[in-house]
Specification:
Length: 388
């Protein structure tokens, strides 16, 4: 491939996505094309094999945010004529007007770190300061996101819940290796397991997926009959998730290695579980404290009383001091949300007078007698109120 051919390649078109596609859209597009075009699934189809190589090359650049940025900037530079003229594949430079740019200078020939395009293309072609190709790494599986909804009390106290997921998982037949049971993949002799080969063309040094192993770094002589050599199968599984005590609504739990399986035994991605919490009809929450509203009678507030209140692990007695005002908050220590560092928050109890909607004749007369006694004693509930 010539320099100009490489520059003019449209990796976005190869993957069938727009130039402003998100990383997730690029990943999904590549995954579908790779599955459909994989040579193991199209034996003898040279067109599919060539298309697979193009898709792999495009994904190698666009799936890496840094390489993608460099690729986009480079294409814009050449498309806009940013070097003042045309590209001369055979002449070793760009020309425009009376000025000629030497490729040796243009691509960083003046030394490392001088800001030339050698630094720019270095990332795209996998070339370090020494000019050697970096070894490829196994392609990690994608992350998965899911959700679960818990009762309020389970979220406060902690619970173990089962989650049923359908996602790419290690093949149960070959255990993720991609090779038929009893056989093993072998290191690719052409790239020595790196998955890429370097080719020098004029002023450029190109790194591209190895033709022999199609960029994987290994060769499977006997592909697994169930996963066709990918080491991955779409299957449904159930995993158990331990939700820690005190988790809040909207929190996320990360389970390392429980995401999508990587190809041919590469590391799996992670699973992220978003937790939603149902409201409780009795308890509320304020940080590490639990809250509740306790209905009481007027007499209990005036005379004082000891009443039974619920907690997460049974009921406790709460003393209401004589003369307690309606709406006062009373604290029961250590009966709130368990803390990760140990201990627990408090239970905050707001007392609220419950007004009877209907009284019998005896109660009505007793209340009138009380009001008369209250008035004769000089009590005025509105004394000093609103300037009175």
């Amino acid at each position: 491939m010539s320099q100009r051919e490489w520059i003019e390649k449209d990796f976005y078109k190869d993957l069938g996505v727009s130039s402003d596609a998100s990383q997730e859209e690029i990943k999904k597009a590549y995954r579908k094309l790779a599955r459909d075009l994989h040579p193991d699934a199209n034996p003898g189809d040279t067109a599919a094999e060539e298309r697979f190589k193009s898709v792999s090359e495009a994904n190698a650049v666009l799936s890496d945010p840094a390489k993608r940025k460099e690729y986009d900037e480079t294409r814009r530079m050449f498309a806009s004529g940013g070097f003042g003229g045309g590209f001369q594949p055979g002449g070793g430079g760009f020309s425009g007007g009376n000025t000629t740019f030497d490729l040796g200078d243009l691509f960083g020939g003046g030394g490392a770190g001088d800001g030339g395009l050698g630094d720019l293309f270095g990332g795209l072609f996998n070339r370090g300061a020494s000019g050697g190709a970096n070894r490829s790494r196994p392609r990690r599986g994608g992350d998965i996101e899911t959700q679960t909804t818990l009762d309020f009390r389970d979220a406060v106290q902690g619970v173990t819940v089962p989650l049923r997921l359908t996602s790419p998982s290690p093949c149960t037949t070959c255990h993720g290796s991609g090779a038929e049971p009893g056989t093993s993949p072998r290191v690719c002799p052409q790239c020595n397991g790196s998955g890429i080969v370097s080719r020098n063309q004029g002023a450029f040094g190109f790194s591209e997926p190895c033709d022999e192993c199609r960029g994987s770094g290994s060769i499977i002589d006997s592909p697994c009959r169930d996963c066709h050599g990918s080491g991955v199968q779409e299957r449904t599984r159930t995993i158990t998730v331990r939700v820690p005590s005190g988790i809040k609504d909207g929190s996320r739990i990360r389970l390392a290695g429980q995401g999508e399986a990587g190809l041919r035994g590469a590391p799996s991605g992670d699973l992220f579980v978003t937790v939603h919490v149902r409201p409780d009809r009795v308890f509320g929450r304020d940080g590490d404290n639990l809250t509740l509203v306790l209905p009481v009678s007027y007499g209990e507030l005036v005379l004082g009383s000891t009443v039974s209140v619920p907690t997460l692990d049974g009921r406790v007695g709460l003393k209401i001091p004589a003369g307690t005002a309606d709406g006062r908050v009373l604290r029961v220590r250590g009966r709130g949300v368990p803390k990760r560092a140990g201990g627990a928050g408090d239970l905050l109890v707001t007392v609220k007078v419950a007004i009877p909607q209907k009284l019998d004749e005896q109660a009505t007369e007793a209340l009138r007698e009380y009001l008369r006694a209250e008035e004769s004693g000089g009590f005025d509930p509105r004394e000093g109120w609103a300037g009175a």
